[in-house]
Request: fold
Amino acid sequence: MSEEIAKVKVTIDGITVEVEPGTSILNAARQIGGDIVPPAMCYYSKLEGSGGKCRTCLVKVSKGSEKDPRPMPKLVASCRTTVMDGMEVENITSPEVIEARKGIVEMLLINHPLDCPVCDQAGECDLQNLAYEHGAEKTRYEFERRTFDRIDIGDKVQLHMNRCILCYRCTYVADQITDNRVHGILGRGDASEISTYIEKAIDNDFSGNVIDVCPVGALTDKTFRFKNRVWFTKPVDAHRNCPTCSGKVTLWYKGEEVLRVTARKDQFGEVEEFICNTCRYDTKKTNDWIIEGPTHIDHTSVISSNHYEMAKPLPVIQKDQLLIEANKVEFDRATKI
Ligand code: SF4
Ligand code: FES
Reply:
């Protein structure tokens, strides 16, 4: 008979939740959801070993546990700290945490250019959101910023090293999802940079996933480059019978044209399932896909602020009787508007 594992209780910003022993504070907060979930720029639940690099997820542990109620002396990274029974944590209720987060954003922006108006990641950039919610209005940095020589890492992925925040997610993708990692972080301290060894192209079946996990615009899709702003495109969930991956994707339409294909993302901005390069780059016609309907946008996004789901249904949906029926609610709403 299997023994039931006793759960541990943790209280975050006054809300108590019971979780499995060994759960991190961040994942306990994700089980509660909403505003108390700390931001995470480097942790990625689908990538083993990720986290502990960016410090955006810092929280205050005001009570260590039931057995040892002493508070932890310093703020801790919630993605790397395990909950203890009776632990009490402060996130948005702690002015100390809010102040520290402001400092982290300031540090991340020391070298990150504010080139959002020309960056393809604008509108879906975690650093943009973080700076908006936690950043200061001005920079105090007066020194010259880092610059890098341009490196070509292949015909599909564009690297802008000056935007990289060294979160390591892309190297974990290459290590864990692809069979051949040819890039990594070279150098130390502020001389660290993402590079390919002997400038070899990143080219294997799952390499495109580095684009989806990159929290900023350091790795973007060359096939979508400068084609459109993300908020002018309409995301639609679709699938195909793919022998390599699950084939479940989001198609980003402009009119009737698919401008790019990405993996689907959950409410924490993480991909649900990694997709292969054939789905991402080689199948950009509507006929290649079985369309399920408009993507539900949970995550903070400029698209949700445009009430995308209330907008006019896509032309491709309007022509197909089956899709019209499947999207009846949306059609009725659009007619009223
Ligand atoms: S390129 Fe992107 S994913 Fe890779 S380390 Fe830099 S910020 Fe992270
Ligand atoms: S998300 Fe915890 S340190 Fe980056």
Notes: The pocket of FE2/S2 (inorganic) cluster (ligand 2) is lined by residues 40-43, 51-57, 77, 79 (CB under 6 Å). The longest helix spans residues 95-111. The longest strand covers residues 248-254. The two ends are 59 Å apart (CA to CA).
